[in-house]
């Protein structure tokens, strides 16, 4: 009888010991994940809010733990409610004014790009150790956890991981420091938030120094990255992100982790010129609309039974 009673007691003791040994590791993992966040910003028209909601839903399909932050100049109660349903926090920040000449340079129909310097506020999210900045015109096909784990290994308080423009591969190797001076796409970046970097951003922008801004803030940021992250000879804190995390054309579509509809060819407008995974994006839009309880209708509504890849 004593032996029969001893067996369950031993089992319970073993389970308690097992849980005690695992708890610190689980707590450590949770702490790391809470120090890493996804960040979006909303500064475009209502159509971009449609993309934002879809993108956040797409992220939440793979990652339910890490915080998601949405930066905007103004958030209505309805927007906050919709984002809360997707477990995303909304933070209001003041606009960041672009130089007056940028209004002419960005071109007709692209005036929203003059507001893209608002991106400066991403570096002010110092409550997080790492922020993965993303844009609303993206589809996430697989988890982005590799980017976080890779970035943890990168030294430097102002380090940055970023993908190139177009379909250019990492010439020095994937996830390796790069000395390429220009040609970085600022639509997806892993950054270390830094008040110092944000201040330098603001100072350079207000200095009166003239720079190209036909693509909004991107060229300015490329110059700033070179000045601050590649200034020492033989040393770079700018890490090259593989193209599969920022796929913008047919050459990388088969292996894409992140599909990015750059320029004016947005998925909610039919994704003219790059229709890979458009049906997948539409499927995510429908699911996000149902989950958030809001009506989101894209300009083009593909047949949900259509093939996922249209050449």
Automatic annotation (TrEMBL):
InterPro entries: Glyco_trans_8 (IPR002495), GNT1/Glycosyltrans_8 (IPR050587), Nucleotide-diphossugar_trans (IPR029044). The keyword Signal applies. Transmembrane segments: none annotated. Pfam families: Glyco_transf_8. Keywords: Signal. GO terms for molecular function: glycosyltransferase activity. Residues 1-20 form the signal peptide. Residues 292-311 are annotated as: Disordered. This is Hexosyltransferase. It comes from Alexandrium monilatum.
